Amino acid sequence: MPMKEVVCFFIKGREFGVDVSQMKTIAHTSELKTREKLPEFIKGIVEIHGEQIPLVDIEQLLRIPDVQAKAEKRFVVLISKNGEYAIESDGISEIVMIEDKDVQHVPGFFNKDETNYADCVIRKNNNTLVVVIDPDGMMNDAQTAAFNHVTRDIRKEREEELKRKREEERRRKEEEKRKREEEIAQMEKERMAELTAEKASNDAKEGKEKPSKEGKADKPVNSEKTGDEKPSKEVEGEKTKEEVKDE
Description:
By secondary structure, the protein is an alpha+beta fold. The chain has a domain at 3-161: CATH 2.40.50.180. It has helices at 58-61, 141-215, 233-246, and strands at residues 3-11, 14-19, 23-28, 32-33, 42-48, 51-56, 74-80, 83-89, 91-99, 103-104, 118-123, 129-133. Strand 5 (42-48) and strand 6 (51-56) form a beta hairpin.
């Protein structure tokens, strides 16, 4: 038997529901950011899981009387054909599985100001009737146009933010690359200085060793005879014979 899964929640003491297929998430309330020229039915912008989402005043749209509710609230993020938006609830009551026999479709029954916010009415096990809202029918044409304008602005801001972050990332990488290149250049410079100093030291050592080696070299031989040289034995012998003849 076909079943309908519905998330039930309270708004100002009244119980409503939404089909689980049209609910994105439930989150704790966060900082509400306001901006200029927001439509009356949009309270502001909230950040949920890193996304900027319009907070719709569902109490105003459903004309729910202002009564005291729980201080602790939850955001219910709904999915519509025009985009996602959040509503405030006083808390989640339960998630129920409803058979088709307990679903009463009431098209147009809740039609007010060209809106048709009710998808159906369900009967829970305790015979409690719960209106299941239709996120697509919460706003009339004028409200839808205003909502679309807000979501376009949010998308534009998001794109600009992403562009700015990409540019910052690009500059950061370029700066890191420049620093790495400077470090490499400095290392090469220091290495060249070390090699130059090492070469100069070696040259200086070789310069000191060279003179000592030259000092040990053989003296050149002079083939010419000097007057101080003694005659050879043969010459001496010849002179002796001549002296003998003269005698």
